[in-house]
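Issue: ligand-bound run for magnesium ion - logging full I/O for the record.

Environment: standard queue, default settings, no custom constraints.

Inputs:
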Amino acid sequence: LFASECTFFFGSQTLDQLPPPGVAEIAFAGRSNVGKSSLINAMTGRNRLARASSEPGRTKQLNFFNLGDRLTLVDMPGYGFAKAAKAVKEDWQNMMFTYLRGRTVLQRVLLLLDARIELKPSDRDVMELLDKAAVVFQVVLTKCDALKPGRLDAKRREVEAEMARHPAAYPHLVLTSSETGMGIDTLRAEMARLVEM
Ligand code: GTP
Ligand code: MG
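Outputs:
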């Protein structure tokens, strides 16, 4: 699946301009700057497919990518600490929440957490929203290259304890780094399995 071509095909700034539902979608969600766009690039092997930036708030719309006509990857604006006007942030969040709750073709959400940063109330809010909407989410730790092995182990246990509290959490946590490629093949294999189901 990930050997096929991946292309950008739609950008939505408002919910009334979503692309018509087609093949299964996987959405990449997480706080601003967590590494959503970088992970899409790492998984598709394309450096500049999704635009990544050290400045939080880089992704400003829902970006839809077509992967071999079999899967759609959706890069979302981040929640949390984006440096944008409050009203703009609220618009993003409303769009994100409504999309996550109501999109019929949404197969799974990859919920990204930065391995270096503690869980925030906004992360738990999103998990609760997904519980309520019964949308399966898989937690992905990002930037694992930035932690020493011992700290990474502690982080894994902390996050797994949180996942155990959420009925919609997929039980397998994936540790990744878009810099070193850690965990990328695992994620690709899991997404490919979803498409085959
Ligand atoms: P928004 O679009 O603003 O919500 O951010 P995002 O979640 O798409 O994050 P993005 O992919 O733009 O990455 C944010 C910053 O984190 C960039 O400076 C990346 O280079 C850095 N980054 C992303 N992945 C990794 C990683 O695996 N390891 C390290 N060390 N840095 C990373
Ligand atoms: Mg982004």
